[in-house]
Amino acid sequence: MFSSLCRTHAPRLNRMFVAKQTTCQTPEDQCKQKPKTAIVMLNMGGPQNIDQVGDYLLRIMTDRDMIQLPIQGKLGPWIASRRTEEVQKKYLEIGGGSPILKWTNSQGTLLTESLDRCLPETAPHKHYVAFRYVPPFTNDAFDELERDGVERAVIFSQYPQYSCATTGSSLNAIADFYRGRSIPKNIKFSMIDRWATHPLLAKVFAERIREKLLAFDDDVRDDVLILFTAHSLPLKAVSRGDTYPHEVAATVANTMIELNLKNPHRLVWQSKVGPLPWLQPYTDDAIKAYAKQGKRHIILVPIAFVNEHIETLHELDIEYCHDVAKEAGIVHIERASTPNAHPTFIQALTDIVATHLRCGPAVSKQFLTRCPHCVSQRCHSSKEFFKSLCSEVPCRDTYIPSIPTIVMTEPTKT
Ligand code: FES
């Protein structure tokens, strides 16, 4: 990991590594020490077992940041309970639970080990998982990092593309946690709210696509349709000005540039819930329509998920790649893996956090700017809260990114 992550700055980083060894010996020894820097990994989470499915759905359906229903207090619980059995069956078909906690912990462990090597002055780093709808919850993560007595906490969204419904909801949960209790004065907080255009994110998606292209016959490989698919969003949220659709499109464009192939591609949307109109075209409809147009060799690329969960393992693999594709007469369909613990992805996470720790803005102006048609008092208070929570820290110059970084936040301060 060290050699691949830091190869372009090996002499300098080798010096740092030696310096760290003097005091800390190995990453294992560091684990036993009190952590100095917390990396709080935000995500929605997924049920570990089918007993958690009911509560998971209930929390989603009653979260107005995620979904807005009429008479939500009554309709939300009713929908959750009506869907529980059907969703439990889906989890049973993928092995009985979501692997999202397993992948997030693997990513967190590899990321913090890598940071310990590259940034000894902020080490030891420790990751904390903060899920929105299943344990470990946001509150658990913040209770733990306060108990650990960290000096610095980086709130790191694991959604590369920002949406007020996903990252926004997780951040509101942090604001809720600190409502009515004092903010620890000894911790410096900062936030990474989006990273849709990081070059190494495009690189890992391109590598995942190349892996699957090899499965196609030579004579069709150049014509395989690359169908990028992301979780859809209600059109109401799009019209309000949510940045998610254009950030997803930016990741797609960067991935195609990185891939440097002439294959056709499109961006389509999956996982619509409820009767209201959502962003289209839907992934299953697109597969059927392309089959009719004679495009029968397809790779599905989940472009907004960084680890496997129900939407990839069930919706894409079982429902679309098997059932829908078979019915539509698709000749060959593959699904690209999510980044998971791919070394390039760990390198991406390391570069994003290390650059932020070195000299990132404590909170981005992009985050602090509300959607043009947002009228939510909750959004307003949340942004005010983070403006005061996240404090600037002096720039450090130890870490030098190995690639030009294009993150959709503030320009780096010098
Ligand atoms: Fe986007 Fe309020 S809905 S900032």
Automatic annotation (TrEMBL):
Pfam families assigned to the protein according to its UniProt record, in alphabetical order: Ferrochelatase (PF00762)
Main location: mitochondrion
Reactions this protein catalyses: heme b + 2 H(+) = protoporphyrin IX + Fe(2+)
Function statement: Catalyzes the ferrous insertion into protoporphyrin IX.
GO cellular component: mitochondrial inner membrane
Protein name: Ferrochelatase
CDD domains linked: Ferrochelatase_C, Ferrochelatase_N
UniProt keyword annotation of Membrane present: yes
EC number(s) given by UniProt: 4.98.1.1
Entry superkingdom: Eukaryota
Pathway(s) per entry: Porphyrin-containing compound metabolism; protoheme biosynthesis; protoheme from protoporphyrin-IX: step 1/1
Compartment(s) where it occurs, according to its Swiss-Prot or TrEMBL record: Mitochondrion inner membrane
